[in-house]
Amino acid sequence: MLGANRLRHKRLSWLVPLLAVGLACEFSNISDAEDQLRRGPQREVEFNIPIVQDTFVIADVFDSLGVGLDTLPDGLLMVRADTVDLTITFPFGVPGLPIDTVVTLPPIWKSLDSADLNLGDFTDAVQDASLNTALAAYLVFNSADAPAQLINFRLGAVRVAGGSLDSVAGQPAFETDGGGAPILVNLVDPGDTTFAVARNEPGKIDTLTASALLNALVDRVLDGDTMALVGVGDLRIGDGTPITVNAGDSVGLLLEPQVGLDLTLGPGGAGIDLSNFVESGLDLDSSLTEDLTQDILDSIAIEVSVDNGVPFGLQVETAFVGDSTTGDIFTMPGAVLDTLQVAPSAVDANGRATTPAADTTGIVLTPGEAGETFNPFITIGVRVRLTAPPTGRGALQASDQIGVGVRARVWLTISRDTP
Q1: Contacts by 97-101 with C-beta closer than 8 Å and gap 24+?
Q2: Of 158, 244, 317, 354, which residue is least crowded by CB atoms under 10 Å?
Q3: Which residues of 230-243 are buried (b: 16+ CB within 10 A; e: fewer)?
Q4: How far apart are CA 382 and CA 270, in angstroms?
């Protein structure tokens, strides 16, 4: 769990001076505050004890979840899959002869499985979501001293079984859309049929929009299937002038699937364990603890405030145990105190966060829980789940942030009859 890597130990009584609301002075510790309360005219004092204030940059959160992230030029977070090599190698040589030949290529393919998609602990969320931005960056090169053209070259996704492509009537069984049509992406713009590659081309780089194709591919891969990106089409070699082609020369196509974290989440949302904070208690001697819990302690509340700078809603759970632990406190009986639902950030037309949303919840502890806050160590846990915004869509940027603050609010009350 991410929180287990963020354990921090502090003495709460020395974090900051305790602020006494309604008094003209601040106290250096809770013992001084108790003494002042017993001697002064006040009947009630409230102390705010900061426990933690942290800001989680979403790129760092995903990195700690084991997700291999990069950023598109417009700031959108994306996951790079392993490069797919669809290289066409010439099996023959042509010694300085005029040539202008068109050949139909056999299916060129490279298989992928879940190990090729570095999604870490975010795998389930992506599997249940729809990808709104998915690209295939590609590089085309030509090592031959001959011009080439890819004609009607298209890319699709096909399941691999037993080391072979699934097929129908001898042709690759491409993944299909809801209407049963094969999901294919043309290497060239609509209306064009040829992709020209100059002789000795060292590398021609561009990007394809391939959301439907990569949605189908990623869903099947994350379901446990081995899939292949498959290229089909014709190859034209030469332009009628004398050329030399050596056996082993090649026209290469390198594809890199890029899955943008521009998602429409499923009904289950996406879970992220942001933190599991271990903090020391108030470190009071036993006699003072007994005085407070039995005499003047009115109540203690744990207050959680959240600034949501991501385009998804947040479901924030808070848990408390009166001890130090590195385990998952959210599975411990009675540890979960409350759940706060925080609205998503305001977004622009592309589903990207603009203005953060904020919310706060306060959980009044039971007398038993309040007493446990005086233990030598306590654990406060915060767990966050992304929930679908009203539009369903959200696009995560590297700079998006979630701010989480936790503090204890302590009320001490004394009767003037108390000695």
Answers
A1: 97/242, 97/243, 98/238, 98/240, 98/241, 98/242, 98/243, 99/146, 99/237, 99/238, 99/240, 99/243, 99/245, 100/236, 100/237, 100/238, 100/239, 100/240, 101/236, 101/237, 101/238
A2: 354
A3: bbbbebbbbeeeeb
A4: 15
Distance CA 66, CA 106 (A): 38
Q: What is the bridge-based pairing of β-strands 313-321 and 336-342?
A: antiparallel
Percent helix / strand / coil, the chain, rounded to 5: 15, 45, 35
Domains and CATH numbers, the chain: 2-61+266-411 (2.60.120), 77-260 (no CATH)
Burial of 71 (0-12, 13-18, 19+ CB in 10 A): middle
Element (H, E) at 190: none
Helices (H) and strands (E) counted in the chain, each on its own, are 6, 30
Give the tens place of pLDDT for each residue, 32-74. Answer: 666 666 665 556 666 677 777 788 888 887 777 767 688 888 8
pTM above 0.70, yes or no: yes
With residue 199 as reference, give the H or E element that holds it.
none
Separation between Cα atoms, residue 86 and residue 107, nearest integer Å: 10
Q: Burial of 10 by CB count in 10 Å (0-12 exposed, 13-18 middle, 19+ buried)? A: middle
Are 353 and 310 within 8 A, CB to CB?
Answer: yes
CA 408 to chain centre: 30
Q: What is the reported pLDDT for 7?
A: 28
Structure tokens at 211: 């959301």
| 3-class DSSP state of 121 | helix
Q: What is the pLDDT of residues 188-225, one digit of tens each?
A: 877 788 999 999 999 888 888 999 999 999 999 988 89
How far, in Å, CA of 176 to CA of 186, rounded? 15
CB 202 within 8 Å of CB 208: no
- pLDDT < 70: residue spans in the chain: 1-47, 66, 68, 91, 121, 271-297, 412-419
Which residues does residue 382 pair with via DSSP β-bridges, in sequence order? Answer: 275, 318
- Three-state SS letters, 33-68: HHHHHHHCCCCEEEEEEEEEEEEEEHHHHHHHCCCC
